[in-house]
Design brief:
The complex is a heterodimer of chains A (714) and B (369).
Chain A (H helix, E strand, L loop, with lengths): L3 H4 L19 H11 L2 H10 L6 H17 L6 H26 L7 H18 L4 H25 L4 H29 L5 H8 L1 E2 L2 E2 H19 L1 H11 L1 H6 L4 H27 L10 H11 L11 H20 L4 H32 L33 E3 L10 E3 L5 E4 L4 E6 L5 E7 L3 E7 L5 E6 L2 E5 L5 E5 L18 E6 L5 E5 L9 H7 L4 E7 L4 E9 L2 E6 L5 E6 L4 E6 L8 E5 L4 E8 L5 E8 L2 H7 L2 H10 L6 E2 L6 E5 L5 E6 L11 E5 L2 E5 L6 E5 L2
Antiparallel strand pairs in A: 1-2, 3-27, 4-5, 5-6, 6-7, 8-9, 9-10, 10-11, 12-13, 13-14, 14-15, 16-17, 17-18, 18-19, 20-21, 21-23, 23-24, 25-26, 26-27
Helix pairs in contact in A: 3-16, 4-15, 5-10, 5-13, 5-14, 5-15, 6-7, 6-8, 6-13, 7-8, 7-13, 9-13, 10-11, 11-13, 14-15, 14-16
Chain B lengths: L4 H10 L26 E4 L4 E6 L5 E5 L2 E6 L5 E7 L4 E6 L5 E5 L3 E5 L5 E5 L11 E6 L5 E5 L9 H6 L5 E7 L4 E9 L2 E6 L5 E6 L4 E6 L5 E4 L4 E9 L2 E9 L2 H8 L1 H10 L20 E2 L19 E7 L4 E7 L8 E7 L2 E6 L4 E6 L5
Antiparallel strand pairs in B: 1-25, 2-3, 3-4, 4-5, 6-7, 7-8, 8-9, 10-11, 11-12, 12-13, 14-15, 15-16, 16-17, 18-19, 19-21, 21-22, 23-24, 24-25
The chains are: A alpha+beta (714), B mainly beta (369).
């Protein structure tokens, strides 16, 4: 143990390195540290956690298609080709969108091609044969599309037929009607030439240089996105697709949602049909034949799950664009239609395979690469065994500790005693218990907050301020009412992962000016996995300050390795911060002439530090929740070994920091160890996470314990 | 045996179902855990007993430290030193003439006469290779002694180094008292830890601790494994009616099995860390924070889970004649009777030497079947 503060004065206002720096560090050692600090794996894991990374593979395929044909197909990248492709793409995308809505709702619509063809025919017949003016004709066509979709919807939703069979049948029926119409009217349509500015606008008009159809598509996409992701209807569609039964139990009118989704598909097909009619004026029965295969391929390629409940309009668009461009490119390369079908089939198979694998393995891959060990070095491990003469020499002074609430409390991480001598502690059930009376025999549930209440401190007004693991910073008034003080702080914008939420607020102390200082031990792991942060060993924690006067919460120090105990120093100007996995204590000046300065107060402890508290005589109490074991120290120097261990064996078998043997130590303002209290077998106090001095007694808490301990101080 | 990590992973991917004997089998069937060892009567509070062997006069010979002591009287309370030895005393056996044969680490096979005089009868084999790590012995009816030598590199408490180095230098020896010669019957054994004669004395049953297996060696001819991939490290074997008693001195854990494949870590650990604090199987828990801890071993609400990954464990297995486990007695995580080094049956009484628990236990033979 070295009192490093006076011996190694850090340059003022320069933050000490966020690691244990060996005394004689070589350049090679420093480079090794840098190498392990960089973590592409973590970037990868955090990137893949993002919702917007879901269509990564479809986007990559689309980009690949564009790049490939730009190089391979002559004229593919020319403006003329792109413009004509945009017009076709618009029709294709609208149909895909219709299919996507139905698939998100858990169904499938095979009749989209037939509806598209039929609507095309209806539009042309209305204008040429029936002589209806263009605008009403377009509206009537959309109504026809709605009606066709309605047929599908009613049969699927209300008659409870299977979507696949239903739409297969309606596909045949619609196609039959189309053939009949073709038979009777095709001669008549061929002879009429429509001259109407609106009709031409639909066919060849441009808005800002883009075909009108494409602009319409963009509008529909934005509207569809808002509708699907931000509206009640969209949520209902997704809910029904994800689990029809759950949606019904949640009170969603499943039938109506299904009907609407098929109607939407019909309407979108009709709009596409109108554009097609205006562009080509071809009233052939073959329009839209075999289109369902292309559309299905596109939608699945976009990553919209066949199982329903998953998908966005953008993914439908990406799929449609891929298929359209693929078709166009192959056409430019003079590849026959039969090859095109084969390519589409291959693309479909690959897309379905990737979709399943991606959906299934993404979470697993994130999970497997989440814990991400880095290099952590420790100073020489002091011999503290009995007879060693070390200031940490193991004794059995905790063996005779009396137990408070034995078996009635689970996981009292911190303990605190009020002015009347009543003992408070948090439990893993999310309660704060209070023990009082003779022998502390009276047990009351003081507050039920939730989470796992950890560090506690009394504010000047008598409120108990509590760090709640998993929830944030809470205050409990003397009558047991709790309220939230804060559950978020500034986000670190350089990080991919949003860390504004408080994930594991750990220990708290209050400075004389009323500000509440607390540590968030790790922003990467949940309460139950706190030791995994140690196996990882990265600077994931931060020091946060909440000012009750303004209600504002701000991050004061970020990138700390597991800041655990927080203690306002006796001088009123600084804080002590115990860093569990670095086995050291930092001192941070929050005010006074040294304001903003951070330096190492003590380092190279023989165990892992937990809470710190002020002692009555101007010194400090420090809890060690475990001892450093040489085998673990060695493993911390070998990050690759730890990574392999995590990959190869289950978590209960992993090498952990040695948490079954802890102690309480008293340290002076000068950084000397004054005395220690051990329980060598760990029978009563294995993982010691806190201690609190009150009225000549020391109260002891442990995160995994079933009691609060108490010893008399002499 | 070098293992290339990348190749191991590729194999794991290509042949997920293939057994590499790295997967530790669960304790089931005859090895289903119980707490039977915890409730057995203690007959002798002796420090770190290696072997307990009933003698012909109703006493109990126990090897402890560098001594062989004899416990006698009711509940074996009376204790007298039979012999002081030049090294740590191990397995014991009686000869027909009433002498005691003792395996002594670093020395070889030592004969203790009825008057307490000691003489080294086999210190080297016929080629002059010393027998430094005698682990177990079996005396045939004709007086021939079959002996296992665990390793030519390490002996005594250094057995763990032999495991960490993944050595296979153990031997099966045959000492003929008539000629005084010691012949090597088999070599290259992965820490031969126990030997026992088959009921009709036509074969030897030998345990290889680091290979986690039990093999059968006909008196002439090569041996062949009868039970493989045991979940623990098999130690001394002794005869039982219709089968054998097997002392399993520690259980394999996934962590140790994994660490053994990580040669860079093992080398560094052996170089810089005291053996007591290695990641290793042990005969006793030291109750020290300096020992490595595994995730499942954390004391929760004052209790260490009995099924925690065992650094030390107490296990006696009863094998049938084919070597199948038909019953067992355990002392699990949180228990104290760990590190069973020997089980011997005399009539209807069974004596269990519990090295890590510092005691010898007795049981009724019928109770464990």
């Amino acid at each position: 143990m070295t009192a490093t503060a006076p011996m190694r004065p850090a340059p003022p206002r320069r933050r000490p390195a966020e690691r244990n720096v060996p005394e004689q560090e070589t350049l090679r050692g420093r480079l090794r540290h840098l190498r392990y600090r960089a973590s592409p794996q973590q970037v990868f894991a955090e990137l893949f956690e993002k919702r917007w990374m879901e269509p990564a593979i479809p986007v990559a395929i689309l980009a690949g298609v564009i790049v490939f044909f730009s190089i391979a197909a002559p004229g593919f990248a020319s403006p003329a080709n792109l413009l004509s492709t945009a017009a076709e793409l618009a029709e294709m995308s609208l149909i895909c969108l219709g299919m996507a809505v139905v698939m998100i709702s858990g169904g499938i619509d095979l009749s989209v091609g037939a509806m598209f063809g039929l609507c095309n025919m209806v539009a042309i017949l209305l204008i040429t044969v029936a002589g209806v003016p263009v605008v009403p004709a377009i509206l009537l066509t959309v109504v026809a599309g709605v009606a066709l979709g309605g047929v599908n919807g009613v049969i699927v939703a209300y008659l409870k037929a299977r979507p696949f069979l239903t739409t297969l049948v309606t596909l045949i029926i619609f196609r039959g009607v189309l053939n009949l119409l073709d038979l009777y009217f095709s001669a008549k349509t061929a002879s009429v030439f429509v001259v109407d500015p609106v009709w031409e606008w639909f066919g060849t008009g441009k808005v800002a240089g883009l075909p009108f159809g494409f602009v319409t598509l963009l509008v529909v996409l934005v509207a569809g996105h808002v509708l699907l992701s931000r509206s009640r209807f969209g949520w209902h569609v997704t809910a029904v697709g994800a689990s029809r039964r759950a949606a019904r139990h949640a009170g969603i009118r499943v039938e109506r949602v299904l009907l609407f989704s098929y109607v939407a598909a019909g309407a979108l097909c009709a709009v596409a049909g109108v554009f097609y009619a205006a562009r080509l004026s071809s009233a052939s029965a073959r329009v839209g034949e075999g289109l369902e295969l292309n559309v299905l391929t596109a939608v699945i390629l976009g990553g919209i799950s066949l199982a329903g409940g998953k998908g966005t309009v953008w993914r439908a668009f990406i799929g449609a664009a891929t298929i359209s461009l693929l078709g166009k490119g192959l056409l430019l390369m003079d590849v026959g239609g039969e090859v095109l079908q084969t390519v589409l089939a291959v693309v479909l198979i690959v897309a379905v395979g990737l979709d399943t694998k991606w959906g299934k393995n993404r979470g697993k891959a994130i999970q497997k690469s989440y814990v991400n060990p880095t290099l952590l070095e420790y100073g020489p491990l002091e011999d503290i065994r009995p007879g060693s003469g070390s200031p940490f020499e193991i004794n059995d002074r905790l063996r005779d500790a009396e137990s408070i609430g034995l078996g009635e409390v689970e996981g009292p991480e911190d303990v605190i005693v009020d002015a009347e001598g009543r003992v408070y502690c948090g439990t893993r059930q999310g309660w704060i218990l209070r023990f009082s009376g003779p022998g502390f025999a009276t047990r009351e549930v003081f507050a039920r907050i939730g989470g796992h209440p950890l560090g506690m401190a009394f504010a000047a007004n008598g409120d108990l301020v509590v760090c709640v693991g998993g929830m944030g910073l809470y205050a409990v008034s003397p009558d047991g009412k709790h309220r939230k003080l804060s559950d978020e702080t500034d986000r670190t914008w350089t990080r991919l992962r949003d860390d504004s939420r408080l994930r594991m607020a750990d220990d708290v102390d209050i400075t004389p000016d009323g500000k509440i200082w607390f540590s968030e031990a790790t922003t990467r792991f949940d309460m139950a996995d706190w030791i995994l942060d140690g196996v990882e060993g990265r600077p994931n924690g931060r020091l946060v300050c909440h000012d009750p006067a303004t209600g504002r919460t701000r991050t004061v120090l970020r990138d700390l390795v597991f800041p655990n105990g927080i203690c306002a120093c006796h001088d009123g100007e600084s804080l002590l911060i115990a860093q569990t996995w670095l086995c050291r204590i930092l001192r941070y000046w929050h005010s006074g002439p040294n304001e903003g300065r951070l330096e190492i107060f003590m380092d190279n402890f023989p165990g892992y530090l937990d809470n710190i508290n002020r002692a009555s005589d101007g010194t400090y109490w420090v809890a060690l929740n475990g001892m450093r074991s040489p085998a673990y120290d060695l493993a911390m120097r070998m990050p690759k070994f730890r990574r392999r261990m995590m990959k190869r064996i289950p978590r209960d078998e992993w090498l952990y920091p040695s948490m079954n043997h802890g102690c309480v130590a008293k340290v002076s303002e000068a950084g000397e160890v004054l005395e220690t209290f051990w329980d060598p077998g760990g029978e009563k106090h294995a993982t010691i996470t806190s201690m609190r001095e009150h009225d000549g007694f020391l109260y002891i808490g442990g995160l995994e314990n079933n009691r609060v301990g108490r010893i008399r101080l002499t | 045996m070098p293992r290339v990590e990348a190749w191991e992973l590729v194999k794991e991917f290509l042949f997920p179902g293939r057994s590499t004997h790295r997967a530790v089998p669960p304790l089931d069937g005859g090895l289903t855990p119980n707490d039977a060892l915890e409730s057995l009567a203690t007959v002798a509070g002796v420090a770190a007993p290696e072997d307990a062997c009933p003698d012909l006069r109703g006493g109990l010979l126990v090897s402890t430290g560098r001594q062989v002591v004899r416990r006698s009287g009711p509940d074996f309370v009376r204790s007298e030193v039979v012999a002081d030895l030049p090294g740590l005393a191990g397995a014991l056996a009686l000869t027909a003439d009433g002498a005691v044969l003792v395996c002594v680490a670093g020395t070889g096979l030592v004969r203790v006469g009825r008057d307490g005089t000691t003489s080294v009868v086999a210190g080297t084999d016929e080629h002059g290779v010393p027998i430094h790590c005698p682990t177990d012995l079996a005396v045939a009816a004709d007086g021939v002694v079959y002996l296992t030598d665990g390793s030519v590199r390490h002996h005594g408490p250094d057995w763990v180094r032999d495991l960490m180095e993944q050595n296979a230098t153990g031997r099966l020896l045959r000492y003929d008292p008539a000629s005084g010669r010691t012949a090597v019957l088999a070599g290259g054994l992965a820490y031969a830890a126990g030997v026992c004669l088959a009921p009709d004395e036509d074969a030897l049953v030998v345990s290889e601790a680091w290979a986690h297996r039990i093999s059968r060696f006909p008196l002439s001819g090569p041996g062949k494994p009868v039970r493989e991939n045991l979940p623990g490290y098999p130690g001394r074997i002794n005869p039982a009616p219709d089968g054998y008693w097997l002392a399993v001195f520690a259980l394999r854990t996934q962590l140790v099995e994994f660490v053994l494949t990580q040669r860079d870590y093992v080398t560094e650990m052996m170089r810089t860390v005291e053996p007591d604090h290695w990641i290793r199987p042990a005969l006793r828990g030291l109750d020290s924070g300096l020992e490595p801890l595994q995730g499942g071993q954390i004391r929760k609400l004052g209790v260490i889970k009995p099924w925690a990954p065992p650094r030390s464990y107490g296990l006696v297995a009863r094998l049938d004649e084919e070597g199948y486990v038909i019953g067992s007695m355990h002392s699990r995580g949180g228990g104290r009777r760990h590190g069973v080094t020997s089980v011997k049956q005399d009539g209807d009484r069974v004596f269990v030497a519990v090295h890590g628990g510092d005691r010898v236990l007795t049981a009724e033979a019928g109770g464990t079947r």
